[in-house]
Amino acid sequence: MMKKTAVITGADGGMGSEITKAVAMAGYHVIMVCYTSFKGEEKKSRIILDTGNEDIEVVQADLSSMESVVDAVDKIKDKTPSVELLMNNAGTMCTHYVRTEDGFEHTVAVNYLAPYLLTRRLLPIMHEGSRIVNMISCTYAIGKIGPHFFTKGREGSFFRIPIYSNTKLALWLFTRELSELVKGRGITVNAADPGIVSTNIIRMDEWFDPLTDIFFRPFIRTPRQGAETAIRLLLDEQFGNLTGRMFASSKEKKVSEKYMHHPQTKELWKMTEQNLGRFLDSGEI
């Protein structure tokens, strides 16, 4: 009997490694999507030692490049005929404006466009019982999607935190819309809010940040604690039939009506399709 496959992005990071370890322990064939092959292979070796599961592979992908995302999907499809678990975990928070080779703001590309494109292109090999989990953030609630979202991340001058929040709102709206579109296929799509986690995404670059780091970081969640909700959404039977919802601390999070039925949900989907048109296949949903 062929093993079930799990695809995890950012699998070489703090929470990504914890999620990978848990899924490997559950006996899955795991495909780690990592920014560098070297770091990915290093993490893979440790996880094999910790879990005893040797059925783990690394696929390198620069998630800021849509061509690299497409190439990663092609490699994944060469390695497995089906995907049962997809964990869109990778994320970043750029400290200054960077425009990608495709013309997108870097944080938008990695946090929103890459998981959108990766998911859309993997959907043809997903089936009834497959689960998709998107890692969002409580900051989605202060996000705003403006006309320059794709190219600048926000309206006005660059500011890392609002741009990050905007990408997490976009990922939540993607979660909501996709859950409706694939419900008939028996595929679930949910969002995990890890809370504030002590990972490298928390960058301390301003003059006051080192003090914040010293006094604040010891009280925030460890990567394992932050990963727990996502792990349960991927593996626990009790979450197998729930879709289109947000979870935090392994419990369903009450989301206001505005964000459950956000007025920009369908518009954002349409705009995203237009921006990624040349990278999308027809008939993916």
How would you characterize this protein structure?
- The chain has 285 residues and is α/β, with parallel strands linked by helices.
- It has 10 helices and 8 strands.
- The chain has an 8-stranded mixed beta sheet, sandwiched between helices.
- The model has no long low-confidence stretch (mean pLDDT 92).
- Low-confidence stretches are none
Question: Roughly what is the average pLDDT, rounded to an integer?
Answer: 92
The rounded distance between the terminal residues' Cα atoms is 27 Å
> Count of helices?
10
Please provide the count of β strands. 8
- Which term fits the overall shape? globular
What's the topology here?
Elements: E1 5-9, H1 14-25, E2 29-34, H2 37-51, E3 56-60, H3 66-79, E4 85-88, H4 106-122, E5 131-135, H5 149-152, H6 160-182, E6 188-193, H7 209-216, H8 223-235, E7 246-248, E8 251-252, H9 257-260, H10 265-276
Parallel strand pairs: 1-2, 1-4, 2-3, 4-5, 5-6, 6-7
Antiparallel strand pairs: 7-8
Feature tags:
285 residues; 8 strands; 10 helices; eight-stranded mixed beta sheet; alpha/beta
Task: Produce a short descriptive summary.
By secondary structure, the chain is an alpha/beta fold. The protein is 43% helix and 13% strand.
